[in-house]
Amino acid sequence: EDQVTQSPEALRLQEGESSSLNCSYTVSGLRGLFWYRQDPGKGPEFLFTLYSAGEEKEKERLKATLTKKESFLHITAPKPEDSATYLCAVQARGSNYKLTFGKGTLLTVNP
Amino acid sequence: NAGVTQTPKFQVLKTGQSMTLQCAQDMNHNSMYWYRQDPGMGLRLIYYSASEGTTDKGEVPNGYNVSRLNKREFSLRLESAAPSQTSVYFCASSEAGGQGSDTQYFGPGTRLTVL
């Protein structure tokens, strides 16, 4: 059974204070690992897909990295508008493209 | 493009009532999905449709039925609502097919309360 564990459950940062969110996973053959951002009362918004260990992707203050067992979402010099819940999900080979989600990390960035 | 749209945005039901949640996508995607999101539980797959004309159970299908009406539309029906079905429901769609992975795009959600 595919499993995704995200840590910490909640993270509070000061504006400009860089940090990382963790996503640990077990999957029977990784097709892709996905990061989403979810604002309160909204649907998840796609951020990144990572396919293989060693891969990195960046978007503004966010950088996602992947190893064989975990992924990190690094947030550099965050701003209050980066406050959201960040969701990690895995897609296994032969899964008919289904996603297994973690429970998310609630990030709060204080001005 | 509107992407994935869902109706209604909010709904309150009494126990035993029935209702249908509607979802439509305008991205010509092959696959569509229904999830529920509960506090502390994350997103859980209810049903999915890998392609037009097919539907399959996900992780938590009990108490729900689905219909893939055509390529654009995928509805979720609660025949006899229970308080345990109080949740936020999200529809998603993806292109699917091919050798690579496949990104799902989500709608804005329907917030359902069952009294």
Give a description of the structure:
The complex is a heterodimer of chains A (111) and B (115). Chain A is mainly beta. Chain A has no helices and 11 strands. Chain A has strands at residues 3-7, 10-14, 19-26, 30-38, 45-50, 56-59, 62-66, 70-75, 84-92, 99-101, 105-110. In chain A, strands 2, 4, 5, 9, 10 and 11 form a 6-stranded mixed beta sheet that branches. In chain A, strands 1-3-8-7-6 form a 5-stranded antiparallel beta sheet, with no helix packed on it. Chain A starts with a strand and ends with a strand. Chain B is an all-beta fold. Chain B has no helices and 11 strands. In chain B, 36% of the residues are buried. The A-B interface holds A 31-32, 34, 36, 41-46, 49, 51, 87, 89, 91, 96-99, 101-104 and B 4, 31, 33, 40-45, 48, 50, 56, 58, 90, 94, 96, 100-109.
Characteristic terms for this protein:
heterodimer; A: 111 residues; mainly beta; 5-stranded antiparallel β-sheet; B: 115 residues; 7-stranded mixed β-sheet; 4-stranded antiparallel β-sheet
Quick structural gist:
The complex is a heterodimer of chains A (111) and B (115). Chain A has strands at residues 3-7, 10-14, 19-26, 30-38, 45-50, 56-59, 62-66, 70-75, 84-92, 99-101, 105-110.
Write the layout of secondary structure elements.
The complex is a heterodimer of chains A (111) and B (115).
Chain A: E1 3-7, E2 10-14, E3 19-26, E4 30-38, E5 45-50, E6 56-59, E7 62-66, E8 70-75, E9 84-92, E10 99-101, E11 105-110
Parallel strand pairs in A: 2-11
Antiparallel strand pairs in A: 1-3, 3-8, 4-5, 4-9, 6-7, 7-8, 9-10, 9-11
Chain B: E1 4-7, E2 10-13, E3 19-25, E4 31-38, E5 42-49, E6 56-57, E7 64-68, E8 74-78, E9 87-94, E10 105-106, E11 110-114
